[in-house]
Hints:
This protein is mainly alpha-helical and about 250 residues long. It is about 55% helix and about 5% strand.
Amino acid sequence: xxxxxxxxxxxxxxLGGQNxxxxxxxxxxxxxxxxxxFYKKAFNDLDEEQLKSDTMKKSFDNLAKLVTYVDPNFSGxxxxxxxxxxxxxxxxxxxxxxxxxxEFNAAKKTPGTDFLCYRFPGTDxxxxxxxxxxxxxxxxEDRKAAQVALATATLSKSFQSxxxxxxxxxxxxxxxPDTDFDACxxxxxxxxxxANEGGTLFGSLAQGYGAPPAVAxxxxxxxxxxxxxxxxxxxxAVTQLVNAIEDAK
Length: 249
């Protein structure tokens, strides 16, 4: 599909050349290449044997292949500008979180008609997640009731539905009705529920949910250097990844 787009004069893959975007795509590449158990051991458990394995080398090889489908002006591009490339028809696909759908909604595009949402090839049945969070301060006893009220309202089915319909994302709760969601939202909700029930729901290392922040930052740095040619080979990338993660622990 990407080769056909390239032959037709369309940029196959819209990518923003920022380390978090590159690493977000690599999350999916690793899951696709090695499968769910490999992803968990490598990126959630930080198992050194998996991190330095031939499967990880193959993952970097696959990432290198994907980069050949990116336009030469990708460096430093914001994610929403990459999304706009797809909306305008300048690019075929973008690997991005479901928040990108908000850009399509703002452009009055209809899911299932003007654009499609689907899992990265080879990752069906698994979900790598990034979740928005609300933090609260430790407050005096007489103010805690207000915090409970806010938390209760935020986690209610009605709010989870209303908020995520507008944002373009998926509710944190798996028991929220999908009635008001579009085709992409319904698919995302079904995928999340199935992955949760099947034990194939994993925190994104790129987004800081698979490991401590220092490890995530080290990971993003290595992936970005590889994408931008500062690390030349997959063997070198694996060596640097193992060392960077070990130093960051």
